[in-house]
């Protein structure tokens, strides 16, 4: 069952076992990490008695009080061994804790008893352990639920508007184990505050997913730095690529040198006749004698000798 808590309203958590008493949370006085939770006489102006119910999904809430600040959440932890709470099985007590040092106990279910009152249990301890008041103003997580214990009954009273943007989102501890038990967050849930001691359901829209699981400022800044670095690396890579490309274009090899003689080939004449191309070799003249010998090629006529037998 989902209760219609207004995320922009402070509520008082009334202890029905002790009328005139209300749940109170302190500041995170222990090194800014944890604070105490107990009950005291109702005081509507006490910051520690002003609680915000922020829906994580349709059945799970995160609670923080004005005194604990936007990073202080209702949670549970092991109690000290020298207190009355240590006598209770489990010795688990409610605390206020910074989200960085808490666990699944920061996720609370608020369920009805059926008589107009409600009980609290958290995801770390399970539904069989309930938030209970003791007789000495202290509180404890108690597994004694049958029969119904009077110290486990609570009602709620709307006090005032929060009006502080720091309470418009929630931070959860840095682990994903909570998803094993928690129901998936709803995408919407606007809850209307009422002045009744027990808020009545009313139609409306539920908070957006970004409200219940928004990125913290540090995470958003880290993403921004990472994206900027990636862009810078890409620009540098492209600049180097184009500079090298221009340099190679300027210093590349010149036109190829060819040997016109070696490349010359015989080509047929247009009329189909072929001519030998002259050779590049030279041949010496045949050797001659050092002196020329003149030869007469003509002699004077001579009378032929007659026949002597006449």
From TrEMBL:
<feature type="region of interest" description="Disordered">
    <location>
        <begin position="249"/>
        <end position="268"/>
    </location>
</feature>
<dbReference type="InterPro" id="IPR035992">
    <property type="entry name" value="Ricin_B-like_lectins"/>
</dbReference>
<protein>
    <recommendedName>
        <fullName>Ricin B lectin domain-containing protein</fullName>
    </recommendedName>
</protein>
<dbReference type="InterPro" id="IPR051694">
    <property type="entry name" value="Immunoregulatory_rcpt-like"/>
</dbReference>
<keyword id="KW-0812">Transmembrane</keyword>
<feature type="region of interest" description="Disordered">
    <location>
        <begin position="274"/>
        <end position="310"/>
    </location>
</feature>
<dbReference type="GO" id="GO:0016020">
    <property type="term" value="C:membrane"/>
</dbReference>
<keyword id="KW-1133">Transmembrane helix</keyword>
<feature type="region of interest" description="Disordered">
    <location>
        <begin position="174"/>
        <end position="216"/>
    </location>
</feature>
<feature type="compositionally biased region" description="Low complexity">
    <location>
        <begin position="184"/>
        <end position="216"/>
    </location>
</feature>
<keyword id="KW-0472">Membrane</keyword>
<dbReference type="GO" id="GO:0071944">
    <property type="term" value="C:cell periphery"/>
</dbReference>
<feature type="transmembrane region" description="Helical">
    <location>
        <begin position="219"/>
        <end position="243"/>
    </location>
</feature>
